[in-house]
Amino acid sequence: MRKMLLAALSRVLQGPAAAGRTAARVMVASRNYGDFASEATFEIKPCDLHRLEKGPGTTAVMTREEGLQYYKTMQTIRRMELKSDQLYKQKIIRGFCHLYDGQEACCVGIEAAINPTDHVITAYRAHGFTFTRGVSVREILAELTGRKGGCAKGKGGSMHMYTKNFYGGNGIVGAQVPLGAGVALACKYFGKNEICVALYGDGAANQGQIFETYNMAALWKLPCIFVCENNRYGMGTSVERAAASTDYYKRGYFIPGLRVDGMDILCVREAVKFAADYCRAGNGPLVMELQTYRYHGHSMSDPGISYRTREEIQEVRSKSDPITLLKDRMVNNNLASVEELKEIDVAVRKEIEEAAQFATTDPEPPLEELGHHIYFNEPPFEVRGPNQWIKYKSVS
Amino acid sequence: VTVRDALNQALDEELERDERVFLLGEEVAQYDGAYKISRGLWKKYGDKRVIDTPISEMGFAGIAVGAAMAGLRPVCEFMTFNFSMQAIDQVINSAAKTCYMSAGSIAVPIVFRGPNGASAGVAAQHSQCFAAWYGHCPGLKVVSPWSSEDAKGLLKASIRDDNPVVMLESELLYGVPFEMSEQAQSKDFVIPIGKAKVERPGTHVTLVAHSRPVGHCIEAAAVLSKEGVECEVINLRTIRPMDIETVEASVVKTNHLVTVEGGWPQFGVGAEICARIMEGPAFNYLDAPAVRVTGADVPMPYAKILEDNSIPQVKDIVFAVKKALNI
Q1: Which InterPro entries does the record cross-reference, listed alphabetically (chain A) (predicted)?
Q2: What ipTM was predicted for this assembly?
Q3: Model's pTM, two decimal places?
C-alpha cells in the first residue's frame, strides 16, 4: 500500500517542485536505511514493435540495491568520460577518443539484463561497455594514456579494449556486427544457452555487411540481439540525411524489432531482458533500436556543434539525462536520499581521480615489447624494426 | 593421391579430431564443394559442422572470425581468393590484428582457404594472386602448398594453429596426383608452417617458387639438366613467415638466384625474396643479380595464347636461368 502511494506520489511530483519537497523531506539529519523502501514499481514507455505481437511490459520493478548500483555505474562512466575529455585536452590521451557521456543508460541497462556469461561486442564508442563488462576505470584510463597498466598493455588504445566475453572495441564501422553474429553462432554451437549482444550506431546501420548478417542470423536462428544505438548523428550527418528509413528497428525487415527509450535505464533493461529471453528460447535474432544521445561530438576532434544546436544538447541534458532520470526516480520513490547519492558522487570522483593519477604516472610499455603478441601461443621469433638491423623479439 | 583428395582427407581428419572445427563457405555442404574439396563431409558431419552460406563474403567471413574469437576453430572457404577482396577487412582488421591489439588476450584460430591465382580461361576478375597482399600483413600466416603432401600437411597444421592462417591453393593443382609417403598417410601428419623444402638439390642455380610454379621449376630443372645445369628447386611452402634461411643457404652454395611466382611482379613475393637476400649474408655469394620470373604485368586476358603468355612457363624459367648464369 505504501509502495503504491509512493509510486502515485512520484507521478505527481515532477520537476523542480519535487526537488524542493524532497529536500524538505530529508531535513532530518540522519536517515535510517530502514526508512527506505526496498523496491518500487515504475511505469516505463511502451516500445514500438516490429513483427512482434507483444513487447516488454510497461512497468518495471527496481530494488534499492539495483538502483544504487545502476546509479553508481552510470555516474562512474559519466565521470570517467569527462576525465578522458580533460586528459585528451591536456594531450595525455592521443589519437581517437569517442566519448559515451549521455548514453550511459544503454550499456548499464544492457548489462543489468544479461549474464556475465553472455557476450557483448560494440564499435569504437566502447569505454562504457568496457567498464560494465568488468574492466576497472584504472585499466581503461591507463589504456587511453597508453601505459603498460592499460587493459591492453597500451597496445590497443581507445578503440581496442577487451575482456572476458567482451570482444571490443572495434574500429571499422559495422565490422563488429558480423563478428557478433559469429560469437552468437559459437553460443548456439556450444549449447550453453548464452547469447550475444552486437551493437552498432545509426551511422553503421547503413553498412551492407549488417544486412548480410541479418540474413544469416535469421536463416540460422543465431541467438544474437542486434542493438542500434541511435544517437541521431553518424559523425556530422544526421539520421535524416543518411538513411532513407530512420526506423532502425525495422531495418532487419524479416527480423522482429523493438524501438526503446535509450535514456531510461529501466526501459533498456526490460527490453533487453525480453530480447534475451526471446533469443534463448531459440527464436533467432532480434533487432533493437535504443534512442539515445551523446553530449560530446563524434570524437574529441569534433566540437559537436556544427551540425546540431547547443539548445538541442541542453534540452536533452535538462529533460532526458539518464542519470538525472534515475536519481529523481529513486529519490521520489524513497529508494535513496539525495545525501546518499551525493556520497556516491564523492566516492566516484575519488575513484576516477585515483585512476587518472595511475594512468598519468604508470610508465609506457617497454620498447622491448613492441613485437609481442603478433601471434598467439607461438614460440618466440624475431620481428623486423624500421630497418634490417633493428630487431624486436616477439613473445606470445 | 590428388591434391583434392589430400585436402579432403585433412578436413575429414581435423573435423573428427576436434569438435570445435567446422567448415563454412559457399556450396561447401550439399554441393560437396564448388571444387569438390569437401566431398562427403556434410553427409558425414551434418549441418552443424559443415555450413552452406549465402553469397555474403564480408558477412560470413566476419561471422567466422567472431566464432573463432568465441572459441571455435572455423575453416572459412572463399570460392576463390578473388572474392576474399569483399571480405578482406575481416581477414586483416578483425582476424590478423586482434591478437596484437588485445595484447594477446583474444586469439583468432581461423583458416581462410580456397583457390588462388591463375586458373584456365577464367579471365581477369577470377585470376588474381593474393600471396603478396596477404603476405604483407603481420598477424597473419600465409601458406601456399604445391604437392598433395604440402596440401594435407599444411592444412592440418593451419587448422591446429591458434592464429589466422590464409591458405592459398591452386585450382589447377586440385586434380594433379602426387606420391604420398607412408608418413603422410598418418592422421597426425603436419608440415611445420614457416619452413621451406628443397624439392630438388642442385649446384648451379637456386630456383625459389611457391604453388604451381614449383612444378614448372622442376620441369625446367629437368630440361636444364640435359644441358649440364643443375638447379636447386626450393618450394617455399609458406609465404609468411618466410623461410629465407633455406634460400640463403642455397644461394651461398649456388651463387645464383631465380625466383618464380604466378603473381604480378610489382611488390611481389620475388621482390621480397630479392630484398631479403640483399640484406643478408647470401648477397656476397651472388655472382649475378637475382632474376624474377612472374606473371605478366597485365590483368589476365582470356584468349588462350594471351593467357598462356601471361603466366610463367617452363621456357621462361629456362631462359631466366640462362640469363642469370650468362649462358
Answers
A1: DH_E1, PDH_E1_Alpha_Subunit, Pyrv_DH_E1_asu_subgrp-y, THDP-binding
A2: 0.97
A3: 0.94
